[in-house]
Structure formats: structure tokens, C-alpha cells
Write a sequence for this structure.
């Protein structure tokens, strides 16, 4: 049986409060998960910092336009912003066609960018393949950066500042990549590895 008059109004107000409260909790959770300050989210969304703060504290009922801007800045759907819960699973799938691929100058090495765009400023990771004789020469990354190369198949050689080391399948090389560095496949077989680059912001000193 439905509700009418004052009871209906109270029910609507209670529902609006519940949705608004969920919105505030979800925006705050996602903002912190992405390590964004109120100022960062304000700049990315175009929503005033004071408004975002009020939303998180459940002190205002934002317009649909405001919710859409926040959802875009947080890279989620409006439905997720409104319905998300703290224990909601996060699953994102990228197809082979959606994965950007970088190719070395000699055309023999390929880097498929499997990392997440949200972490590109401090953490990058790739699927690396090198044909026999392939060479990937890289300029220095920002100071303090570390690269980790885990060989899955074949054998790869890394040279950094005149120091050369080789890794076979099942082995990992970690090295400073804030100076010129080169990865080579000197073997007669293709090589396959995962590469993770940890930039200065994430390196513990």
C-alpha cells in the first residue's frame, strides 16, 4: 500500500537523504582511493572545492550536472557514484584492440601498455616482447626511478651506465632507470617479459 500526503513527503525526503549520503561517502572514498585532494578533484571536475566538501559531508543535494562532472573526473559511471558501496568489487576489462603498443626504433621490440592511466605519473607497467637481436634504448626517466624487468620466456640483457646483467625465464632485474638504459635480446629466440617502472613519487628513500 502506498503513502500519501505528509507521509509521502517524509518518505521522499528520507530517500533523498539516503541517496545524498551514499553519494557523499562514495565520492570521498573514490577521491581518497585515487589519492586526490579536494583541490585536485575540484580542478579536474570543475566543481567548486566547497561544494565537493559539502557533498562529502552530506550537507547539500547536488544537481545532476554536478554529479556527472564528478563521475567523469573519477572515471566512473553515474550509477556507480550513486549506488557504489565500500565493498563493491572493481573489475575493468581492456581488449587487445584497446591496448596501446609502442615499438622500438629497430621494430623488433614491442611494449604493450597494460598499466592504468590513473597511475601513469608514479607507476607504469608493460608487456614486453623482443625478437632475436631486438634492442630497446631508453632515455633517462625522472630522478630516482626504478625499473623491474621480469623475464617470462627467453633471455634479456640490460645495460645501465656501463653495467651489464642478463636474466633468463623466471628471473627479474631491477635497476635505476634515471639514466640511459638499454634492453637487448642477444639470443636466437624471442623473449617475453613484464616491465614495471616505479617513478620518483613511489620510491622509498
Amino acid at each position: 500500500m502506498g503513502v500519501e500526503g505528509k507521509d509521502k513527503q517524509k518518505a521522499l525526503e528520507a530517500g533523498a537523504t539516503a541517496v545524498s549520503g551514499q553519494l557523499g561517502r562514495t565520492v570521498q572514498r573514490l577521491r581518497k582511493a585515487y589519492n586526490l585532494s579536494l583541490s585536485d578533484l575540484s580542478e579536474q571536475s570543475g566543481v567548486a572545492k566547497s561544494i565537493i566538501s559539502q557533498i562529502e559531508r552530506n550537507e547539500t543535494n547536488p544537481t545532476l550536472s554536478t554529479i556527472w562532472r564528478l563521475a567523469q573526473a573519477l572515471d566512473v559511471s553515474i550509477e556507480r557514484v550513486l549506488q557504489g558501496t565500500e565493498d563493491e568489487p572493481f573489475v575493468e576489462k581492456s581488449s587487445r584492440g584497446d591496448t596501446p603498443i609502442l615499438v622500438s626504433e629497430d621494430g623488433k621490440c614491442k611494449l604493450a601498455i597494460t598499466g592504468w592511466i590513473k597511475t601513469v605519473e608514479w607507476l607504469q607497467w608493460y608487456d614486453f616482447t623482443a625478437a632475436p637481436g631486438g634492442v630497446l634504448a631508453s632515455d633517462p626517466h625522472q630522478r630516482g626511478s626504478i625499473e623491474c624487468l621480469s623475464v617470462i620466456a627467453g633471455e634479456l640483457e640490460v645495460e645501465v651506465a656501463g653495467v651489464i646483467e642478463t636474466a633468463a625465464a623466471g628471473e627479474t632485474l631491477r635497476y635505476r632507470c634515471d639514466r640511459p638504459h638499454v634492453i637487448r635480446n642477444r639470443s636466437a629466440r624471442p623473449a617475453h617479459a613484464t616491465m614495471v617502472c616505479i617513478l620518483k613519487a613511489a620510491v622509498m628513500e
Summary: The beta strands are 101-103, 109-113, 123-130, 135-138, 146-153, 155-160, 163-168, 172-176, 181-184, 191-198. The mean pLDDT is 82. Residues 5-83 form a domain with the 434 Repressor (Amino-terminal Domain) fold (CATH 1.10.260.40). Residues 56 and 180 are 45 Å apart (CA to CA).
